[in-house]
Amino acid sequence: MSSEQEEAKRYQEERDLLKRQIEYHNELYHQRSAPEISDGEYDRLKVRYEEVIHKLGQDEDQLTLSIGDDRSQGFQKVRHLEAMGSLDNTYSKDELRAFTERLERLLGKSEFEFLVQPKIDGLAISLTYEKGKFVRAVTRGNGVEGDDVTRNMESIEGLITELQGGPLPDVLEIRGEVFMTSHEFERINRQRDKEGLSRYANPRNLASGTIKLLDKNIVAERQLHVRLYGLGFCEPSIWQNLSEFTDQLAEWGFPTVEGSAVCRDLPSIWNAIEDIGSADLPYETDGAVVKLNNLLDQKDAGWTAKAPRWAIAYKFEAEKGYTRLLRIQLKVGRTGAITPVAELEPVFIAGSTVSRATLHNADEVTRKDIREGDWVEIEKAGEIIPQVVKVDLEKREPDSQKYVFPEECPACSTTLIKPVGEVVWRCPNAQCPPQVSRRIEHFVSKPCLNIDSIGPSIIEQLIESEMVKTLSDLYRLELEQLLALERFAEKSATNLIDSVENSKSQPLWRLIHGLGILHVGATASKLLAKEFGSLARISEADYDQLIGIDGIGGVIAESVVQFFQDDANIALIAELKSLGLNVEEEIETGSSSKNLEGKVFVLTGTLPDFGRSEIAERIEQQGGKVNSGVSKKTDYVVTGESAGSKLEKARSLGIEILDQSGILALLNED
Ligand code: IVH
């Protein structure tokens, strides 16, 4: 191979690695609302990706890579009338200057007004008003189409259903940000602590997870807020400047962003940014947004593939520290995932001492060429686990060795595997001791079987003494055996046996959760228990049946099917059943008013006299279920004016179609 070919090969490998990583972090951020890296770190991945692509002379589909996609199952998809892009990020005064100079070249003039606003760390929302009436709220989605979250937005303070006064366009998209205050975030986490549930990572992700909940009562219970800051589609056009429009928003009574400023030059932009950085605002900000104020100028400046040229984000840096990486440790998780962790010389960053940082996965260690003994830069952003940003190559010892990711499990020496398309190496041995411990810890934890007399040290003892090798062994423990162990007395041993015994009658969803099926948390467990009623029926369900359930997506469905294909799991369930665990859902005794019990409805189009949410509520009160997609399992489709593809699908599947009087008849008389 020539040296050029070798170089090209290296770049191709790096490109593939980066692409996998970016896709992985996109999914964590947008789909699961649980990022592992800071925005700055994410940007660095993207910048490097673009560099590598450029070096290779290629042009990838960068839009999907940079914007991500928040669309999720269970919501109707709606196209935005004007695209919702993302923003390019800057981190320095020089980059800001480059932004204003680019606009000068682009528009051929040098006098502009800029509007500088705080960048709220929440999730983007678009509110549509037709002739002043609120019609829907849609998330950003993939920028072109998003999820209809109208029902959930209705409980948010500050949403106005009818605009009064001022000019009213025929169609108007108002853009803004939904967020949760740190105070509310703390309240929810304290509640989670009490219930023994894991804490949420940060307010942004909890807000974006909340707006995507299918149960609007939980949404109303958690306090979300909104601030409006921008203009999407507007017909006919009315305003000349963005600041005039935001003034109008305030006049209508909307909550708008605090502390925004109109600026005419770089020094005043910089002052405004600094003011935002030091202001005490009711929401978390991760920077400031600088926008051209004149709407015609905005139009002239236009867009790149993913972001407007008329606006830019200035991001505040995460706090950093500098220290020595002592050792790379490998942690084995409950599902066998191997996570490399950096053990650090302790260093004080942003209010606390950091002595460990996650290295995420093998790809990450390779890409950054992180080695034991290196001097490294550590970053701590928000509630995200500290991470190694980069290695100080100048300080690297000449005899340092490249880190070689082991091929075998550090705990049980089984050969590790990496499923195609995943970034994580796993130990496939279900009997691997740390996996067994983590599985049992999970099984006995509060949100599962809730056996509170068994903590981590007892689990270690039970495993070491070989009394417990699988979950079912917990139910075979005997008093005499326990008494033979150190630290056990008559009382503690009896307590343990009793609480294990009591756990047998826990509701089915807790057992499902306790089984530790990959990706199946408490919410999915409840859905599965409710839908199928018994473990036996869940084990027989196929992929299509599973994704037909509102709230169960492809990843979960796949994982459930796989779990029940494993004979060891089937055997475990049979054992648990024969040991007396409850494997059936208790049937609720239906009251006479629940006459729609078990019936599945889909609502589409606009009914003449009722909002969709009102009808949905009445259906649910009578025991029916409202899904968003039509499938073979749908019993009725309720249609109104301008019903679209759902109606066609219902017809093609031969599903009964009801109009307003039809559904009212069913609700009142059936
Ligand atoms: S203007 C075409 N203004 O930041 C996009 N965005 O990183 C124009 N954001 O998707 C967006 N505060 O969710 C704008 N004052 C603000 C903002 C803001 C927060 C969010 C928004 C956007 C993301 C881009």
Account of the protein in words:
The relative contact order is 0.07. By secondary structure, this protein is an alpha+beta fold. The chain is built from 25 helices and 20 strands. The termini are far apart. The longest helix is centred in the first third of the chain and has 29 residues, at 3-31. The strands form five sheets. The protein has a five-stranded mixed sheet. The structure holds 2-(butylsulfanyl)adenosine. The site of 2-(butylsulfanyl)adenosine has 16 residues, from strand 3, strand 8 and strand 11.
Task: Name a few traits of the molecule.
D-amino Acid Aminotransferase, Chain A, domain 1, five-stranded antiparallel β-sheet, Helix Hairpins, five-stranded mixed β-sheet, 670 residues, 4 domains, 25 helices, binds 2-(butylsulfanyl)adenosine, globular, DNA polymerase, domain 1, alpha+beta
Short overview:
By secondary structure, the chain is α+β, with helices and mostly antiparallel strands.
List low-pLDDT spans.
Answer: none
- Give the ligands present: 2-(butylsulfanyl)adenosine
- Termini Cα gap: 77 Å
The largest pleated sheet is described as:
5 strands, mixed
List the domain count as a whole number: 4
Total strands: 20
Strand-helix topology:
Blueprint: H1 3-31, H2 39-55, H3 62-67, E1 77-79, E2 89-90, H4 93-107, E3 114-120, E4 123-130, E5 133-139, E6 145-147, H5 150-153, E7 171-179, H6 182-194, H7 203-211, H8 216-221, E8 225-235, H9 242-252, E9 261-263, H10 266-278, E10 285-292, H11 295-301, E11 311-315, E12 319-332, E13 338-349, E14 352-358, H12 362-368, E15 375-380, E16 387-391, H13 433-444, H14 456-464, H15 479-483, H16 490-503, H17 508-514, H18 522-532, H19 535-540, H20 543-547, H21 554-565, H22 567-578, E17 600-604, H23 612-621, E18 625-627, E19 636-639, H24 645-653, E20 656-658, H25 660-669
Parallel strand pairs: 2-11, 17-18, 17-19, 19-20
Antiparallel strand pairs: 1-6, 3-9, 3-10, 4-5, 4-7, 7-8, 10-11, 12-13, 12-15, 13-14, 15-16
